[in-house]
Amino acid sequence: MKFYISTKGIKRVTISNAAAAAAAGKGSNKTTAAGRRISSRTLLPVLLLLAIVLPFLFLRFAILVLESASACSSIDCIGWRFLSGGDASPKLRDELIRALIEAKDGNNVNEEGAESFNQLVNEVTSKGQDLKAFAFKTKAMLSQMERKVESARHQESVYWHLASHGVPKTLHCLSLKLAEEYAVNAMARARLPPPEHVSRLADPAFRHLVLLTDNIIAASVVVSSAVENAANPEKLVFHIVTDKKTYTPMHAWFATNSIKSAVVEVKGLHQYDWSEEVNAGVKEMLQINQLIWKHYHKKFKEEKLEYVGEQDRYLGALRPGSLSLLNHLRIYIPELFPDLNKIVFLDDDVVVQHDISSLWELDLNGKVSGSVFKSWCGDTCCPDSKYKNYLNFSHPFISSHFNGDQCAWLYGMNIFDLEAWRRTNITHSYRQWLKLNLKSGLALWNPGVLPPALIAFDGHVHPIDSKWLVTDLGYRYQSQEISFERLQEVAVIHFNGPAKPWLEIGVPQFRSLWNRYVNFSDKFIRRCRITW
Ligand SMILES: *[C@@H]1O[C@H](CO)[C@@H](O)[C@H](O)[C@H]1NC(C)=O
Ligand SMILES: *[C@@H]1O[C@H](CO)[C@@H](O)[C@H](O)[C@H]1NC(C)=O
Ligand SMILES: *[C@@H]1O[C@H](CO)[C@@H](O)[C@H](O)[C@H]1NC(C)=O
């Protein structure tokens, strides 16, 4: 091995070719062996780290070896000097720093990065390049790796979101088996609720809960959990609205799984006879949501999204729920239930953990809705959950009407005074804003059902205690922040986010809170091998 270094105007580090080739050969063997052990997921960050650290160690070591050659005769001595930082060559260091800064500021678009550290060493040593070239090469290599890591994160995020789209085979099976049961078993077609309980459906003395869903097992968990934890389950009346295709299996499930003394009504959208006006409104809302979906789908395919947060926003807009009529129909609840005056609206991805009957007795102070605000750090403290987190305050339409620092309320569990709602223009205003947003090129708010609802219900919401609801159990990165005690104490937990507990990607530590309400001894659940 032969080193050459000039100390005045230091520009060149040369190592003889044979030695470098041997080192490279050895190195690449090692990388392949290591590659087999390290999963592809961890490989990129590790490579990146190595790429950052190793060149410096290598250089520093090389310099020290050279400097120490005369004074040190053993590795121990070199090691000691290396660690103690005793450096007799500030010039070389300054030179290197200058080269790195130059590389950082310089524009080296033509520079090709090395594929690996070995290649980098190989190129720098074999061509006898100077420090500047080395710095540029290293920069190109790091940028290349950064891009790879970014692209891998991008991919991973897309796959994760895609996983939230498919209906699991087992749930599909449940739907089919129950539809079959509806066809062959008169019990499964029995009137729901039985004739003696029909009068309860519009009786204000009972506590009415509304659920809009096409997911049978989710509905069953909401109903079972609410009934099991209710002090007076016989007071509860569930109104489940579903679509035409889910109507028969949903009916069959609740007709054959008698829910203690509570009353369950299952209605299909096809059974509604709406006025022309409501029909037109619903149709328009659906069309707008399809346009929104197409818009984000197109943008997602065409645009190179800069960072994962932006991409998540797009993927969020493309979630199955964004096209589901049932998801958007919540703004038509007064029309869906013309005979009811006060209801509690539950999303299908919640679990009721305590008695919630006092919700119906809450005084809403004349407001239309009682909702929980995401203010876990105090009444007026709601970081990341203000109007400005949902609406675009750079837009004059938004900034002239609303206050960005106002806290946003949450969906999941809401009380609605339908009588008060009918006296307002909320539904009308929601439609108008939806149209305005479309006209403004979808620039007014982030995709989702909440932002336009924040606008339409502005000034109509009475805050209720945050001990009623914990949300975000369907987001990956939220999972560490919620303490288990708080989860146990809270009345309702909400699995909003892509990681639904019935999906493969559900967050394991939260799933048990949900699946303890699944009746795994039920014959359909067993036949479809539903297990979590
Ligand atoms: C609803 O809107 C109409 C027309 O825009 C208006 O005349 C009426 O006062 C509004 N009603 C309420 C309660 O705001
Ligand atoms: C917010 O509104 C501004 C002003 O109209 C617009 O330029 C911008 O693109 C909007 N932002 C988003 C994310 O739509
Ligand atoms: C669970 O299903 C079994 C079998 O259908 C039934 O006997 C039992 O009552 C159900 N349990 C609950 C809590 O609904």
TrEMBL record:
Pathway: Glycan metabolism; pectin biosynthesis. It is found in: Golgi apparatus membrane. It is a single-pass type II membrane protein. Coiled coil: none annotated. GO terms for biological process: cell wall organization; pectin biosynthetic process. Keywords: Cell wall biogenesis/degradation, Glycosyltransferase, Golgi apparatus, Membrane, Transferase, Transmembrane, Transmembrane helix. This is Hexosyltransferase. It comes from Senna tora.
